[in-house]
């Protein structure tokens, strides 16, 4: 009975993470379309939410969960998974508050690694896996997207340079609808799977399922719904940063960033190299801006974003480890996760009461 | 560093991404130029020109749509 309470707390927390994932990463797909007026804001987030929902059903490759190859799966307990999820949610909310795009996957990995370090020690973490799945992709993704988008926008300006600007803008706005849709679908086929994997792992660890069984339909539907709802609510602060604070974008630049971003992610998927959609689209936006004019990029804002990327893993790991420590204070049962959950809900209500929506977005100056 | 990740995989991602960037931007730019020039030719009564530019736009759009379809296929076939 007590195990079931912990299990359902983990399931609820995983769905809460899924919601923040959709909410936090909406900007990846829609910010450029909104800022270039390829789509209205509500239409763009509705489209992204629908494609995230559909995408969650299209690919069910969840056997390898997000943390596989990074932590020792045999050491996993529902309490570690719970603490890892709290670390990821905390980092997603903190970066959303400051309007900073950062990788939800890296936050989840960081949270689980931190909780594992606190529970098991360094023997529970595969540092080679961390290098392979987090560090190297975090270096490759933005650099490659930056270069590719820079080349793409130079080619585009070269080809369409003599055409009427209004015609060119209309054409690339239409192109952005396609590239933005591809991005949203890609996000849905990737990110909802992480939550499904986490819930499946918890169900197996709790003895409700065997590892050989299929993912239950309720897990698929609830994960797809949570990420779609989060996407629909929309992280408007990050959309603002991505859409207009890094560069002032024209439709051709928006198309170059999104089109190239989708190409980079898909080519990486093809060879099984994990890249963060956030890192790719941010790098693409900076590249499309810098190729036009280096000073067109607000490097202060870009610098803040890079700092957030660097801090993602250690910060979410610290929260994950701290959460695990707090849960252990209350013993090995359900009391610890329940206390943390209640504490978080109280903090959330307090934050809402203080009108979080009036909080500030980090700028180059601040 | 490359002992952990296959260097070949990274290089493949790099060259495929760069080639795709050139390909996608070129084809879609030609769709835009072809459509614009076709409309221009039609307005000035040049039916032949309109047909050629329109044909180029259509061809490039089909190639672009093929690339998008291939992207969706990759997305759905990943293991």
Largest sheet of chain B: none
The fraction of residues in strands of chain A falls at: under 5%
Structural class of chain B: mainly alpha
**Average predicted confidence as pLDDT of chain A:** 84
Oligomer: heterodimer
| Through-space gap between termini of chain B | 25 Å
Shape of chain B: elongated
Q: How many DSSP-defined strands of chain A? A: 0
Uncertain stretches of 5 or more adjacent residues of chain B:
none
Order of helices and strands of chain A: HHHHHHHHHHHH
Structural features, described:
The complex is a heterodimer of chains A (366) and B (79). Chain A has helices spanning 2-35, 41-58, 78-97, 104-119, 127-160, 165-205, 217-233, 236-245, 251-271, 277-292, 299-329, 335-353. Chain A is mostly helical and 366 residues long. In chain A, helix 1 (2-35) packs across helix 2 (41-58), helix 1 (2-35) runs parallel beside helix 8 and helix 3 packs antiparallel against helix 11 (299-329). Chain B has 79 residues and is mostly helical. Chain B has a domain at 27-79. The model of chain B has no long low-confidence stretch (mean pLDDT 86). Chain B has helices at 7-43, 47-77. In chain B, helix 1 (7-43) packs antiparallel against helix 2 (47-77). The interface between A and B is large, with 48 and 35 residues.
For the structure shown, list the relevant keywords:
heterodimer, A: 366 residues, 0% strand, B: 79 residues, mainly alpha
Describe how the helices and strands are arranged.
The complex is a heterodimer of chains A (366) and B (79).
Chain A: H1 2-35, H2 41-58, H3 78-97, H4 104-119, H5 127-160, H6 165-205, H7 217-233, H8 236-245, H9 251-271, H10 277-292, H11 299-329, H12 335-353
Helix pairs in contact in A: 1-2, 1-3, 1-6, 1-7, 1-8, 1-9, 1-10, 2-6, 2-7, 3-4, 3-11, 4-11, 5-9, 5-10, 6-7, 6-9, 9-10, 11-12
Chain B: H1 7-43, H2 47-77
Helix pairs in contact in B: 1-2
């Amino acid at each position: 009975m007590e195990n079931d309470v912990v299990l359902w707390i983990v399931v609820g927390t995983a769905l809460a993470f899924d919601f923040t994932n959709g909410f936090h990463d909406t900007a990846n797909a829609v910010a450029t379309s909104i800022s270039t007026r390829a789509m209205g804001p509500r239409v763009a987030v509705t489209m992204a939410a629908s494609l995230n929902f559909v995408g969650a059903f299209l690919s069910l490759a969840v056997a390898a969960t997000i943390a596989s190859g990074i932590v020792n799966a045999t050491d996993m307990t529902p309490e570690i998974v719970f603490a890892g999820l709290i670390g990821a949610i905390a980092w997603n909310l903190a970066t959303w508050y400051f309007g900073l795009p950062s990788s939800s996957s890296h936050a989840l990995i960081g949270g689980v690694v931190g909780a594992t370090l606190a529970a098991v020690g360094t023997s529970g973490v595969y540092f080679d896996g961390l290098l392979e799945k987090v560090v190297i992709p975090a270096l490759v993704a933005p650099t490659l997207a930056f270069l590719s988008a820079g080349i793409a926008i130079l080619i585009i300006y070269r080809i369409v340079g003599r055409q009427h600007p209004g015609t060119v803008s209309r054409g690339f706005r239409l192109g952005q609808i396609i590239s933005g849709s591809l991005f949203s679908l890609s996000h849905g086929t990737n990110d909802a799977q992480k939550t499904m994997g986490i819930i499946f792992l918890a169900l197996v660890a709790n003895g409700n399922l065997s590892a050989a069984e299929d993912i239950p339909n309720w897990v698929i539907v609830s994960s797809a719904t949570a990420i779609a709802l989060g996407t629909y609510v929309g992280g408007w602060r990050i959309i603002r940063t991505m859409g207009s604070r890094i560069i002032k974008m024209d439709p051709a630049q928006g198309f170059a960033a999104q089109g190239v971003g989708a190409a980079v992610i898909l080519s990486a998927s093809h060879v099984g190299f994990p890249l963060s959609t956030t890192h790719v689209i941010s790098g693409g936006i900076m590249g499309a801006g810098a190729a036009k004019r280096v000073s067109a990029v607000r490097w202060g804002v870009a610098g803040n974003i890079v700092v957030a990327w660097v801090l993602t893993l250690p910060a979410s790991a610290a929260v994950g480890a701290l959460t695990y420590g707090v849960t252990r204070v209350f013993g090995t049962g359900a009391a610890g996760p329940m206390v943390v959950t209640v504490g978080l809900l109280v903090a959330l209500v307090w934050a809402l009461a203080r009108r979080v929506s009036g909080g500030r977005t980090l700028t180059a100056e601040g | 560093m490359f002992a952990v990740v296959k260097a070949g995989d990274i290089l493949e991602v790099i060259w495929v991404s760069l080639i795709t960037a050139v390909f996608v931007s070129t084809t879609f730019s030609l769709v835009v130029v072809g459509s614009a020039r076709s409309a221009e030719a039609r307005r000035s009564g040049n039916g032949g020109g309109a047909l050629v530019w329109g044909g180029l736009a259509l061809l490039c759009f089909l190639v672009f749509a093929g690339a998008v379809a291939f992207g969706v296929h990759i997305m759905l076939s990943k293991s």
